[in-house]
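Example record

The entry below shows one chain as it appears in the dataset: sequence first, then structure tokens.
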Amino acid sequence: MSVGPVNINYEVLLSSFRSNVGITSDEVNEAFREIISGLRKMANHNKGSIILLPGSGTTAMEGLTNILKKGNRVLLATNGVFGDRWEEILNKYPIEIKTIRSEPGDNVSEEEILSNLESKKFDAIILTHVETSTGVKSKIEVLRKAKDLGVITVLDSVSGFGGEELDIEKNKIDYVVTASQKALGAPPGIGIAFISQESLSIVERGEGVNGYFIDFKKWLPVMSKLEEGKGSYFATPPVHVILALAKAIELCLKEGMSRRIERHQTVAKAIRSGLESLGLKIVAKRGFEANTVTAVYLEGVSPIDFLNIAKQEGVEFASSVHPKIANRSFRIGHMGWVTKNFAILALSVIERTLRRLGKDIEMGRGVRSAQEVFI
């Protein structure tokens, strides 16, 4: 139960269990078509384009440079380590950035975001849907208000999409990034970018500050043909990941997005209830908790010792990467194909691990609390 790559559904895993397949074979072309069609339905993205990039969510993040022009001013509202990554990426390009930050567990307020946008000239606003380092979920409705102010709206949903509600058209989002290995439940290897119809004009005119590999002018015609089920090529795609992602998307649609999100929400609620019943504190403030990741404070216990013993007990959790809380917290990933049983197993291991580390806890209390959520 790390924060990604996630456990893989066996149907998804076996769908990629093939001998070598051609990058423009009918099999791969059909998989691409199914992925793009499915993603449009899942995110309500009927206009604009979808680009599948060999790489990761970070690859798709850097793809934003296709719709930013030299000298553009970007407002970055970050609530953790992966929000900060946007700053590192864009500082490599002739882009001006103003960063506003929150403390771990909190969000930059809507008022602060809109106040900045209204008082100064910005060309874009960037928000993180789920901050993987803290388990904090942003209120993405602010992007709709930001769009009404005339700026390009950008959302990092790498750890959100597939487990959190996301309606791209309703929220007027110009650029969304996610990846194959998180809540979509496929192996790593594909960064995904959703681009609005309006922003495509910047790409088509070649006004972005992007480099060569992530030049969307090269990728757009390829994606257009692949969406029609026709073979096309710019750079070698990880074909086995494509085959697996196609199966994952198929299963997501079969489950239904509302049921999928509800499942994530229920498992997350049960895990948090169990943790709190054991006296552990959640990093995310009340109302900001994500469906896909929970960061947890550990008092009086070494996180390294905790993670090592938990792994011996049968569950792998994730270490903290946020510098302000790294030495006193850990993270639980609950996304993709998680079920109620994942929550029960995780909490039972947490209980045993804490007891082995000398914490005076009531064994079974966390599990019971989670069970009450499921009744």
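Notes for this example: The chain has a mean pLDDT of 97. The two ends are 23 Å apart (CA to CA).
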